[in-house]
Write a structure and sequence with these properties.
49% strand, Ubiquitin-like (UB roll), mainly beta, elongated, 16-stranded antiparallel beta barrel, single chain, 4 domains, 13% helix
Length: 563
């Protein structure tokens, strides 16, 4: 919060030309002649007098305190700008002793520099910024006077600092929360009772709370004084519904000789169990008629009253009854900055394959153990429908794989494996409500196996990767995809978008002479809409693959319901 700032009373105004011929300019070069002509335009004597004062005030503002207009007539202007005055070290009064000397040394009013009035205002703002960050949010800076010497052509500003009371955060209260426990919100804010008020720290606390998916809105906090005279903060929040179910259905065109197929997924999340911030997740997906996937996850957000979080996960994928893949994961994360989190974990995988999978896909039963680490940077202003900010996540994993028997093309049963994952999103509001949204994703797996097994390939295509193509239409050991969207923001959870999706998929295949790499590049375009209704947020995306007819597209319908 900013206190009032009183400066010397001078006005810098521009009077635009009213259709008369520009006067002849005779004088110093403080201004370009064309600019002076704008300052002294007008048809009446009152306008000339006003322009004369404007010109003199403008010169004075630039530090030419002896400037004057010698003659002003209908066709000419003669002025003298004089010499520019220099600055003497300002004299600080009032509560200046409560502010370190080094803060005053950094302001632009330096001894011997050219004097300009804007430097006085900038110096006061810098002092107030320091006060805001060090427990003095009610501080004010006033201009008492200016000590002007026409002999030395110097100016010494006299400035008074009113520091106001020091504010310490003795307590933090929340209003509007009916389920979320106050101690949970206090922890998520990262504020500490007893710390000195800092404007940027409080702003960061508000941003952290606003990023929680179970809070719909977080207002600017208020500084309050309780009955005992202690100061604190009050955050007014609005809770969203604490559980969500995200359902997506897709209708793929019928390939020649086959019937149409319906794909879909259901993502059920409990985001704030009993108001403690704990969350659980159940995910089911049917990307094609022969594949089903189930995943379970649990998050413990606070361990031993610290922001250390733990994630537990389990996933199983059944592929056409030929093989089953199971994954187990444990990950711990810790915020090192207000927008940065680092994490590390352990991943275990198991591949169960029968004789049919061995004959058709060259698969053998395996067990894999990986150690992973990475970081997340998140500056978005909203978790699901952001208008600005970015999110970037990078994960790297390394480990080994053991097979029950040597796979085709090898006499070994032990192999090393490395994986990498990158996800990035960027949002920028160019003009009111019009937002450009960019995203990019990359996946790669490297192994000394004769061939990357089909169970390890990354699947691309569908509602969450490349709209316009069938779910998991492409697979490769290296894959990258992204999108460019022009969004029109319709509300907290609503928007319209036109998009272009791009993807590159690399597949390595073992042949008699070695390994052959196949690269597939694809593009799609289309439009989509998200509308918030009483039953949830409905989404419709219509994507058209590059080279296809506009009527031969993929329709993806989703419902994000909160309850």
């Amino acid at each position: 919060m900013r206190a009032q700032l009183l400066l010397v009373p001078f006005v810098l105004l521009l009077c635009l030309s009213a259709g008369r011929a520009a006067p002849r300019i005779v004088g110093g070069s403080a201004f370009a002649p064309a600019y002076v002509a704008e300052l002294v335009s007008g048809d009446s004597s009152d306008a000339f007098a006003y322009s004369r004062a404007t010109l003199e005030d403008s010169l004075v503002a630039l530090g030419y305190l002896g400037a004057q207009v010698v003659r002003l007539s209908a066709d000419s202007l003669v002025y003298e700008r004089g010499e520019r005055y220099t600055t003497l070290a300002p004299a600080w009064f009032g509560d200046s002793s409560r502010i370190p000397t080094i803060v005053f040394d950094r302001v632009p009013l330096r001894e011997g520099s050219e004097f300009e009035f804007w430097k006085v205002r900038e110096a006061a703002l810098q002092i107030l910024e320091w006060c805001d960050e060090h427990g003095l949010p009610f501080a004010a800076v006033h201009t008492d006077s200016f000590e002007i010497s026409h002999i030395d052509q110097s100016v010494r500003p006299h400035l008074r600092v009113l520091a106001g009371p020091e504010i310490k955060i003795a307590f933090v209260n929340f209003t509007g929360n009916t389920t979320s426990l106050p101690r949970l919100l206090m922890r998520e804010s990262r504020l500490r009772e007893g710390e000195v008020y800092g404007k940027s720290r409080v702003a960061q606390a508000r941003r952290r709370l606003a990023q929680l998916e179970y809070l719909r809105r977080v207002d600017e906090p208020r500084i309050v004084i309780d009955e005992e005279g202690k100061s604190g903060l009050v955050f007014n929040v609005e809770e969203g519904r604490l559980s969500r179910i995200d359902a997506v259905a897709g209708l793929a065109p019928a390939p020649e000789g086959e019937a149409q197929s319906v794909t879909g997924l259901v993502d059920l999340q409990v985001m704030n169990l009993f108001g403690t911030g704990r969350r659980g997740k159940v995910f089911w997906q049917r990307p094609s008629r022969d594949v089903q996937e189930l995943a379970l996850a649990w998050r413990e957000p606070w361990i031993a009253a610290t922001p250390l979080r733990a994630d537990l996960s389990f996933a199983q994928r059944v592929e056409d009854t030929l093989y089953v893949t199971r994954k187990f994961g444990v990950r711990a994360g810790y915020p090192v900055l207000s927008t940065v989190e680092i994490f590390a974990g352990v991943v275990g995988e198991e591949l169960l394959a029968d004789s049919g999978a061995s004959a058709q896909l060259n698969l053998v039963p395996t067990r894999t153990r990986l150690i992973e680490s990475g970081f997340v940077v998140d500056t978005r202003d909203h978790a699901t429908n952001p208008r600005s900010g970015l999110r970037f996540e990078s994960v790297a994993a390394t480990g080994e794989r053991r097979a029950d028997r040597p796979p085709p093309g090898s006499d070994r049963t032990k192999f090393s494996q490395r994986r990498a994952q990158v996800d990035g999103e960027f949002f920028r509001e160019l003009i009111p409500n019009w937002i450009v949204a960019l995203s990019g994703h990359g996946r790669a797996v490297f192994s000394d196996e004769p061939e990357i097994p089909v169970s390890d390939l990354f699947k691309v295509g569908g509602a969450r990767t490349m709209r316009g193509y069938r779910e998991e239409q492409f697979a490769g050991s290296q894959a990258g995809w992204g999108s460019v969207e022009a969004r029109y923001w319709l509300g907290q959870a609503s928007r319209f978008a036109a998009f272009t999706d791009l993807g590159v998929i690399v597949r390595e295949s073992r042949v008699t002479d070695g390994v052959v790499k196949t690269t597939v590049r694809r593009a799609a375009y289309g439009f989509g809409v998200r509308l918030e209704t009483g039953v949830g947020v409905w989404g419709v995306d219509y994507g058209i693959a590059g080279g296809s007819s506009a009527l031969d597209g993929q329709l993806h319908v989703s419902l994000l319901s909160l309850f």
